[in-house]
Backbone:
């Protein structure tokens, strides 16, 4: 289990995370939702140890470090690959450093997305780069796969295909924490939704419990964030005033 306990992160003029606590068991697909600047990316970077923080983050009771960091992979639209290295070069590098790397999964996903093996990553399109980033994260052999806006730059059809492949690829022991703004698109396959606002967890609901209420995920998110449906019309009225 991945446990985040009382985690806070402060920058010079901003509190990015404020006393965040949440537990994520293995075998879940969890959506992490929030506005830009809410703290989603910061939370993921804290889990990975990319930035310092206050509080405690453990994996099966142990602090995350060099002995267990390989159990976590990361796909980000900021990209973490080596631009001058080919896809084949990345595969060879990952196979050397991650004993549980799945060559079969890597090859299958590369073929599915029709990505070239012998072209440097810097020559890939934005959509291709994001697809490759996800392929590496899924193939690493990690038990916890963190994805931060992984679908940026991909069209609707590629995203829909990827959702189907993701569901068919994951084993029952693999966990995905997916940060995205595409709430409606992912609502059909996530099992749990965590909502963060101004650095604090403001909602945490299972999709089964939400289904019992008769509300859609979009409706639940709007309610949690106190979304005002009249804000657009009021703004337009103000702009139209003489």
Residues:
């Amino acid at each position: 289990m991945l446990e985040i306990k009382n985690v806070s992160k402060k920058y010079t003029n901003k509190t990015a995370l404020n006393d965040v606590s949440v537990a994520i068991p293995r075998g879940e697909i969890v959506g992490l939702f929030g506005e830009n600047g809410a703290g989603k990316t910061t939370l993921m970077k804290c889990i990975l140890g990319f930035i310092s923080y206050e509080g405690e983050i453990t994996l099966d009771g142990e602090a995350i470090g060099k002995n267990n960091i390989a159990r976590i992979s990361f796909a980000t639209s900021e990209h973490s690959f080596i631009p001058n290295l080919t896809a084949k070069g990345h595969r060879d590098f990952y196979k050397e450093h991650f004993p549980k790397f799945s060559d079969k999964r890597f090859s299958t996903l590369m073929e599915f997305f029709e990505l070239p093996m012998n072209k440097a990553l810097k020559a890939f399109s934005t959509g291709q780069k994001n697809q490759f980033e996800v392929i590496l994260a899924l193939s690493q052999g990690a038990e916890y796969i963190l994805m931060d806006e992984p679908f940026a730059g991909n069209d609707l059809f590629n995203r829909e295909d990827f959702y189907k492949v993701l569901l068919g690829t994951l084993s029952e022991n693999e966990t995905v924490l997916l940060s995205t703004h595409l709430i409606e698109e992912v609502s059909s396959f996530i099992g749990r939704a965590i909502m963060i606002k101004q650095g604090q967890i403001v909602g945490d609901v299972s999709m089964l419990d939400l289904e019992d209420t008769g509300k859609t995920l979009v409706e639940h998110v709007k309610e949690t964030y106190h979304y005002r449906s009249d804000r657009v019309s009021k703004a337009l009225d103000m702009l139209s005033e003489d």
